[in-house]
Amino acid sequence: MPLAQTASSVHAAVVVDRREPAPGIVVLGLRVPSLEESVRPGQFAMVAMPSGEQAAVALAIYEAGAQHLSLMIVVVGTRTAALANLAIGERIEMLAPLGNGFEAETLGDDVALVAGGVGIASLLLLAAAVVRRGARACLYYGARAAGALVESDRFARLGIEVSNATDDGSRGYRGFVTELFAAEGRRHSGIAGCGPTPMLRRLAEVASQRRIPAQLSLEEPFGCGVGACWGCVIPHAADENGAPQNLIGATRNLPSLAVGHRRTTQRKDERFTYVRVCREGPVFWSEELRW
Amino acid sequence: MVNGAVRVDPTEPDLSVRIGRLELRYPTLMGSGCYGSGEEYAPFIDLSLLGGVVLKSVTRLPRLGNDPPRLAAVPSGMLNAIGLQNPGIDAYLERDVAKFADRPCAVIGSVAGFSVDDYAYVTKRLAARDEIDAVELNISCPNVGTEGETFACDPELAEAATRAARAVTGKTLIVKLSPNVTDIARIARIAEDAGADALAVINTVRGMAIDVERQRPRLGNGSGGLSGAAIRPIAVLAVYEVAQAVRIPIVGQGGIETARDALEFFLAGASAVGIGTGNFTDAQAPVKVVAGVRDYLIARGKTRLRDIVGAANPAFAGVRA
Ligand SMILES: Cc1cc2nc3c(=O)[nH]c(=O)nc-3n(C[C@H](O)[C@H](O)[C@H](O)COP(=O)(O)OP(=O)(O)OC[C@H]3O[C@@H](n4cnc5c(N)ncnc54)[C@H](O)[C@@H]3O)c2cc1C
Ligand SMILES: Cc1cc2nc3c(=O)[nH]c(=O)nc-3n(C[C@H](O)[C@H](O)[C@H](O)COP(=O)(O)O)c2cc1C
Ligand code: FES
Question: What is the pLDDT of residues A35-44, one digit of tens each?
Fold first, then answer.
């Protein structure tokens, strides 16, 4: 079902708030005077480096309102470090909002939100949308250790039940969040997942075994973030002409694509094409991924 | 559509360039493979302020492209190995090219191939379309085994591909050279003699980054092409050397993000510049480049961009007309 597309454009933003919920994790509050329309859950921004010289970096839009949004940054390299070091009053530019995001309406009335690490940043707006629809939601949230589990209270305040997993067992289930979710065994109507690729692959397996439709927000290295470079692709189910099947949200000006065939373990000879995480995604139905 | 070299205000410096038969209002072309078909960037920049867009390279047969990951951020640049993902010339002409008709800047098709015959065949069919104002011959793609780049690295193949493409179109033909050669000026001369109207200098520089945790290359393809600020000095030198060897215009590219970067290329001998990765750093880079070059000319009392082309290159051999 195509959704109305919020117009994306270049925005100038000022840092108005900065907190560090854990070492190496920073939440930046930004005033964005030109941001009028609402942002859909799961959309992201391409945030330019204050000094240029390096490509802009993709960050999920964590919270958003009129003329305001926030970003959650986990420092992993030079660009995330540069943004995490911004002080209140500093200015940055960004392209936003980008991507198709989650579709809350098709997740049913008992939604499992499954987050690994900074993947949590893509799920807060969705959680709010799910609750607004009157649906129920549970958050399964995993990280390395208790100290890296941040902002759970934001979900709890929405009335969402939170279960945690940590690699070292310092809080909640000891092990991966996908195993916590599998062990929990509750019959959710839909899953929304965001986190590192190995976690999402495992989540896709669990979802498929349990026959629960899952929307996964993927991460690949980005170049442009706007669909121009074809650097961020993932293999996706396609018809015989290469048209990708069952994408979430609106597809705009999708050019023709080459078709590939791949033998997978469960399914036999499967047709696929490479679609762009930044433009056709970043959220995809897990059943349509051919990874 | 081609934008005519109309000067709105006579006090404004003339930034127009002529490349073969192609007239560009602004000396900026968006690098092939970095700008989609232009439409992708339309929400973020006024496309009528670009000289033109070089489309993503197209081949005779459909290509899926390389397995991901296709990109890796590295200091001051990025590695890419897209692998020429494209639907093949048939589907491209049938379904995609018509959509390029309403672009308010020049639209330059890009052709890649694996044989001399491929280059002739695809160039002929693509150049026949009204939506396409000129053709760039990508004989320098480093991400398809050794096959693609062989053309730009082998004088005989470079000559044969250029001649073959020249024979099938009267539209402006730009030949895109690889920096991964010992003597780029020699290949440049060969392409000029074989009928190229202009040269794009340079394509990406071969490179690799290794994931030290997983102990394997970060790109799915293993090696890739390095672009961005990291390659700028390599590109400036290549333009400098090529500008001493040929008389045809050069589209200088490699790491251009600001007007100062672009000016290095003009002063080395480029008539126009290509901006690829710089768009990923700043989507407004192309308009900032034009504005900055204009200010530079005004500050120096110059009325035409072409008057500074090659100004830092004593042996500049090109034509400033
Ligand atoms: C749609 C989307 C949304 C995102 N949302 C967020 C978000 O909300 N918050 C957030 O913090 N991030 C988010 N990311 C991830 C973020 O964009 C990337 O992590 C980005 O690459 C960081 O840039 P960087 O320059 O800091 O690190 P980079 O230099 O790009 O490094 C990226 C990763 O590669 C690793 N790496 C680099 N070089 C090597 C090497 N030689 N060997 C091994 N590993 C290496 C780094 O350790 C790091 O894990 C998102 C990504 C996408 C696609
Ligand atoms: C992601 C990406 C894809 C590219 N694809 C092509 C291509 O299909 N054909 C081509 O001729 N050049 C291609 N290039 C090379 C660019 O057009 C440009 O020549 C090169 O990157 C150097 O300029 P830059 O540093 O401004 O990007 C590509 C570059 C990048 C970064
Ligand atoms: S990052 Fe360039 S197409 Fe997605």
Answer: 977 799 999 9
Kindly state the tokens that stand for B195.
């009928």
The set of residues, in sequence order, having a beta carbon less than 8 Å from that of B55 and lying 6+ positions away, is B32, B37, B100, B107, B108, B109, B110
Q: What is the pLDDT of residues B67-97, one digit of tens each?
A: 999 999 999 999 999 999 999 999 999 999 9
Considering only CB atoms, A53 lies closest to which of B45, B64, B281, namely B281
What's the gap in Å between A230 CA and the centre of ligand 3? Answer: 5
Nearest ligand to residue A218 Cα: 1
Please name which of A135, A58, A133, A136 lies closest in space to residue A97, comparing C-alpha atoms: A58
- Two structure tokens written together for B256: 């251009």
A253–B99 C-beta distance less than 8 A: yes
Instruction: Give the three-state DSSP class for A172.
Output: coil
Instruction: Take atom 1 of ligand 2 and give the residue whose Cα is closest.
Output: A229
pLDDT tens digit string along A145-164? 999 999 999 999 999 999 99
**B34 flagged as catalytic:** no
CA dihedral A227, A232, A234, A237 (to 10 degrees): 0
Non-local (6+) Cβ contacts of B201 within 8 A are B176, B177, B184, B188, B235, B238, B239, B242, B250, B251, B252, B253, B254, B270
- Say what the pLDDT of residue A38 is: 78
Residue B22 amino acid letter = L
Instruction: Domain ranges for chain B, please list them.
Output: 17-307
Question: Does CATH place domain B17-307 in 1.10.287.500?
Answer: no
Distance set, CA A49 to CA A9, A43, B229, B282 (Å) = 17, 19, 14, 9
This model of the complex carries an ipTM of 0.94
**Secondary element (H or E) of residue B118:** helix B116-127
Contacts of A221 in chain B (CB under 8 A): 69-73
Q: Do B228 and A49 lie within an 8 Å CB cutoff?
A: no
Q: Which helix (H) or strand (E) covers residue B138, if one does?
A: strand B134-138
Distance of CA A48 to the CA centre of its chain: 19
Decide if A184 contacts A140 (C-beta within 8 A): yes
pLDDT tens digit string along B166-210?
A: 999 999 999 999 999 999 999 999 999 999 999 999 999 999 999
- A269 pLDDT exceeds 50? yes
For residue A55, which residues of chain B lie inside 8 Å, CB to CB? 73, 78, 228, 277, 280-281
User: Count of H helices and E strands in chain A?
Assistant: 5, 17
pTM: 0.95
